[in-house]
Amino acid sequence: MKHMNSEVKEERTSNKKRIDLFLVPIVLIAAFLNLFKIWTDEYANAYYTAAVKSMLQGFHNFFYASFDPGGYVTIDKPPVVFWIQTISAKIFGFHGWSVILPQALAGIGSVLLLYVLVKRTFGVWAGRFAALAMALTPIVPAVSRTNNIDSMLVFTLLVATWMLFRAVRTAKFGWVLAAFAMIGVAFNMKMLQAYMVLPAFYVFYVVATKITWKKKIAFLTTATALMLAVSVSWAVVVDSTSADKRPYMGSSQTNSVLELAFGYNGINRLTGNTSVMGSSHKQPAQAQQQTASSETKQTSNSNVESSQSSNQSKSSSSKKMQAPGGGNQNGMFNTGNPGPFRLFQKGLSDQISWLLPFVIFSIVGLFAGVKFKGPYTTKQKESLFWLAWLLPVAVFFSIAGFFHQYYLIMLAPPIAAFAGAGAVALWSMYKQRNGWKSWLLPGGILTTAALQVYIMSPYISSIGVAPIAGVGALGVILALVLAVRKERKNSVTNYLGVAAMVVLLAMPAYWAMTPIIYGGNSMLPAAGPDSSSGMGGPPSTATNSKQSGFNGMQPPGSSSGNSSSNNQMQPPSGSSNGGQMQMPGGSSNNGQMQMPGGSSNNSQMPNSSSSKSSSSKRKSGGMNAEVNKKLLNYLTKNNTGEKYLFATTDSTSAAPYIIETGKPVMAMGGFSGSDPILTVSKLKAMIKKGEVKYFYLSGMGKGGQSDVITWIKENSKEIPSSKWQSTSSSSQQGPSGNGTLYEITLK
Asked: Which of 347, 392, 421, 545 has the lowest tally of Cβ within 10 angstroms?
């Protein structure tokens, strides 16, 4: 106990010391990567931005995180992060940057927290290097520059980690409760993803605390119970509220938060069952690529132009790039194929894995000589914590059936912590000529440089040969020189070690800047020369990296820009549908990938009256269609007191109109159009009450709404396109086509 009290006094004393001047530039780098030019993103992730617009309009919408101002359906995530975004928008005004700001600050905060966590045990230089590695991990700023949840989630889990470490140092049970309660808060950000750190928390507390097993079990049981209570608190309130008193829980099939948490946002991520048609069977890989699940559809839209590559014309003759271990890399949405080497495959490796070989060597060094039964030093205990965070999360992403590249930010803290702690530990072993351990430093440098060359090799056409050759050559030279000079101790050797660390961080730093250089994608953030596409793949998969993703998306009611066979979405590899991309609900588009809202994607910006293609602002958040002013004017002029401006199949068509007008727009089937919210009888009642009369229907997102859509078409009057389309397009007219406006008035 005296030892613990002395540690607390030491901590208080260290907190009174002046600011670490080496930390200042690291924080400035993180601030630049996370904040610079976020003001150019006008919509951010429009699905979430529309929710913030709605949540600003009243406590009911705020509490339930309603997607639309009418309180019809919620977004598909818990509300805590969106509460924070809404407060930010309330303070600074409603802008794209004001909803991004909390996540950007969380990204910077994570860098600072990692410095504090690592510095105390492993030393100041370990803390500095860990903070720098965190700041330069490419996926970290890529996510933090958006209004997606993951950056705030990681920050919250690091706060919980700080509380847990303090609980062990002070032997105070209150900090244990606080740490697990914070995980409960994180659950209300992104549900089960927050629980991925639990193995680390349990293992560390059991190993690090010097209390009886009886107390350990009692304390952990109590803390876990509190965590679960906090986790389900909002869900219990929502699920116990009468369905007619609240919005429908978006992306659930039973209007339940708990079903959403443990199904769509839980087990289905591991199994890959991302069906949104209300079915419970697991889809095959090809079917997964053709489905329009809530997040699946985000990706299929975001990569429309990135699929228009020269590789397509060669797809039948070119060989697929082999991953380490021989696995190919045809995984859904550039996430590779499940297997032990998945994190080293393209699409994932350039987001998170730049330092993984060095981390592996660091783990070997940090645990060298450790006996299973202990006793363990503080460094070994905390190393065990980061290892228990790293391994389960890495295993999940190695086998998971469905996730997006930006989820990999969950791996950033343990990788950065081991990079910082390992750099100091391996350097010490090297300087002390500690037997075989002294070879870990040059070995780590050499293998890490080799992996970085492998990561960059698909991008030769974009970044050139020089940086790839430079990293490879310098890595080999520095590793060999350090190996040769192992018996010498002088300042030259010190400079060589610093130079090696600089080389290993150079290309991650460049990759971390790519969302600034090439433009980002707020719906599916990813780093790399093709960062604007939201797919993080080699640049050869896009005709123009600055316009890939959603920048060619057409608004509801507008026509295509320049139609070209080279700009049409190709079917998934191995498809047998004759060159047609299968649409949700079974419809096809003669080889063109149709955007939600009914218009085909082309390389040109929408030719609508509100087009801002020359503006410095960008609407790259996925659902970034320009609002069709002619359609909006028609709907506004002919509104006779209806609650909803119009109804549409899914949120993609609705989001821009909610953002621009703040008026209720009904996404009948929720985000993807598959939620079983409406029935024909319920819709009839709404129409009779005068709540809605206009319906904008597209070919996307039918799913569980097929009966409703059929009824609308059979009982409505089609509005001539000349009255509301910015430019008429025959391909979008008629009940069988996409982008048709209907009117229904029942007496």
From this structure: 392
Main-chain dihedrals φ then ψ at residue 743, nearest 5 degrees: -130, 135
Residue identified by tokens 């919210």 is 677
DSSP track, 618-657: B--SSS-PPP-HHHHHHHHHT-SS-SSS-EESSHHHHHHH
**pTM score above 0.70:** yes
Q: CA-to-CA distance for 17 and 210, rounded, in angstroms?
A: 30
Q: Average of pLDDT values for 96-109?
A: 98
First to last CA, the chain: 79
588 half-sphere exposure, CB direction, 13 A CA radius? 12
**Tens of pLDDT along 297-311?**
444 443 433 333 334
Cβ neighbours, 10 Å, residue 399: 14
Contact 414, 395 (CB under 8 A): no
Nearest Cα neighbor of 609 from 623, 624, 621, 626 is 626
- Token match 């949405």: residue? 333
Band (537; pLDDT cuts 50, 70, 90): low
Mean per-residue pLDDT, 651-662: 94
Contact between residue 134 and residue 114 where contact means Cβ atoms under 8 Å apart: yes
Separation CA 114–CA 133 (nearest Å):
10
What's the distance, CA 60 to chain centroid? 27
CA 382 to chain centre: 27
What burial class does residue 614 get, using C-beta atoms within 10 Å of its C-beta: 0-12 exposed, 13-18 middle, 19+ buried?
A: exposed
Give the C-alpha distances (Å, rounded to integers) separating 502 from 133, 352, 499, 548: 11, 17, 5, 32
pLDDT at 728: 45
- DSSP per-residue codes, 124-137: HHHHHHHHHHHHH-
Alpha-carbon gap, residue 547 to 554, rounded angstroms: 13
Inter-axis angle of helices 356-367 and 440-456, nearest 10? 160
pLDDT of 414 above 90: yes
The predicted model gives 587-607 an average pLDDT of 34
Mean pLDDT of 575-596: 36
Q: What is the CA radius of gyration of the chain?
A: 27
Would the pLDDT of 533 be above 80? no
Instruction: Please tell me whether the peptide bond between 375 and the residue prior to it is cis, using omega within 30 degrees of 0.
Output: yes
Q: Tell me the C-alpha distance between 515 and 528, whole Å.
A: 7
Tell me the pLDDT tens digit for each residue of 681-698: 999 999 999 999 999 997
Listed residue (612, 615, 653, 620) closest to 741, CA to CA: 653
User: Of 423, 297, 373, which is closest to residue 698 (Cα–Cα)?
Assistant: 297
Contacts of 441 (CB under 8 A, 6+ apart): 361, 426, 427, 429, 430, 482, 497
Listed in sequence order, the residues at least 6 apart from 605 whose beta carbon sits closer than 8 Å to its beta carbon are: 551, 552, 561, 611, 613, 626
